[in-house]
Amino acid sequence: MNRPPATVVSYDRFLARLDAGPAATADRAEDGSATDPGPPDWLWQVIAVLYDGQDAAAAQDWALRVHGELARSAGRVPFSVVHDWHAHAVAPVLAEASARRGRPREPQEAVRDLHLRALAGGRVTETEWEAVLEPASRDAYRLAYAWADAFADAYAGAHAYALANDYGAERAAEFAGGYAESNTGANVASFADGNALAHAGATAAAWAAADARAYAETWPFAQVQVCALAWAADGERPTAPEEDGERAERLRSVYRRLADGLADALVRAVS
User: Fold this and answer.
1) Alpha helices by DSSP H, 20-119
2) How far apart are CA 180 and CA 51, in angstroms?
3) CA separation, residue 77 to residues 31, 73, 250 (Å)
4) Terminal CA-to-CA distance of the chain, rounded, Å?
5) Which of 9-23, 25-39, 140-154, 233-247 has the weakest average pLDDT?
6) What is the DSSP letter of 2?
7) 32 within domain boundaries
8) Most trustworthy range by pLDDT among 1-15, 37-51, 107-121, 177-191
9) Residue 213 domain flag
10) Residue 240: exposure state from Cβ atoms within 10 A (0-12, 13-18, ≥19)
11) What integer pLDDT is reported at residue 164 of this predicted model?
C-alpha cells in the first residue's frame, strides 16, 4: 500500500513509536503535558502490541489504516472506542475461547453487554463493572495459562525425584503424574485469582469514569496478550514440537482479528 506523501514524516514517527513497544508513552514536558499530543496512552499500548502480534506485511497495512483514522480525527480518540472494541472484538474472542474449552460464555457476554450499554450512552457504575470483570478476568487468565508447559515441567521434576529415590518406573510415573496434576491446578487457580483481583477493580474504576489515563495505568496491552493467548492456547494437553508453528499461526490470526476490530472501532468513532 502507498501512503499519502503529506503523511510520510508523521507516519514514520508513528511506526518508530510502535516499534518502541507497548510500554512506550508520549514524550512529556516537566508539567506532565505531552510534547507530541496525539492519541491517549492506552491506545498506544494497544496498537503497539497488536502491531507486534501480526506478521510483518499485515502489520504494515494495518498500521497505515490506523494512522489514517488517527489523522482523520486529529488524534482525538473518544473513550467510546474502548467500549466499541471490547464489545465487538475482545469479548467475542474470549467468549469463543471459553466455549471451545468447555467453559461458560456467560461471563464474557456479561462484560460485552455492559460495553454495549456504555456505548449507547448508558451509565455503568464501577460496582457493576467490577461484578462482571472479576469472573470474566478469572476465566480469561485461566484459559491463557500455559498449562501444558507447566504440567510438563512439574512432571519432569517430580519424576526425576522419584527415580532418584528408587520409586521404580511405574510408581515414579504415578507419583509424577499426581504431583504435576495437583501442582499445576493450584498454580492455575492462584494465577487466575490473583490477576483477576488485581486488575478488575482498577479497570472497573477507569471504565466507569471514562478515564483514559487511569485505563492506561492498568496496562491494557497485557490484557490484549491475555486475550490472544486464551484464544490460541491448546488447553490442558501437551503440545508436540511440530505443533508450535500451528500455535504461532493461531496467535497471529487472533491478533489480526483484534487489530481489525480496533481499526473498525476507530472508523466508527470518527464517522
Assistant:
1) 41-53, 56-72, 80-85, 91-100, 106-119
2) 36
3) 22, 7, 30
4) 22
5) 25-39
6) P
7) no
8) 107-121
9) yes
10) exposed
11) 87
- Quickly state the pLDDT bin for 236 (edges 50, 70, 90): low
Grid-cell match 487457580, residue found: 189
In this predicted model, what pLDDT tens digit does every residue of 79-115 receive, in sequence order?
999 999 999 999 999 999 999 989 999 999 999 999 9
The CA distance from 227 to 132, in Å, is 16
Q: Domain range for residue 190?
A: 41-270
Number of domains, the chain = 1
Contact residues for 242 (Cβ-Cβ < 8 A; gap 6+): none
| Mean model confidence pLDDT for the chain | 85
pLDDT of residue 176: 82
Q: Is 55 within the bounds of a domain?
A: yes
pLDDT digits (tens, 9 = 90+) for 156-211: 888 888 888 888 888 888 888 888 777 777 777 777 788 888 899 999 999 999 99
* Burial class of residue 239, CB neighbours in 10 A (0-12, 13-18, 19+): middle
What is the rounded distance in angstroms from the CA atom of residue 171 to the CA atom of residue 252? 42
Residue 9 lies in a domain: no
How many whole angstroms separate alpha carbon 113 and alpha carbon 10? 37
Sign of the C-alpha dihedral, residues 218, 208, 116, 94? positive
- For 266, phi then psi, to 5°, come to -65, -40
Give the closest residue to 117 by CA, choosing from 106, 129, 108. Answer: 129
Query: How far apart (Å, rounded) are the C-alpha atoms in residues 226 and 141?
Result: 6
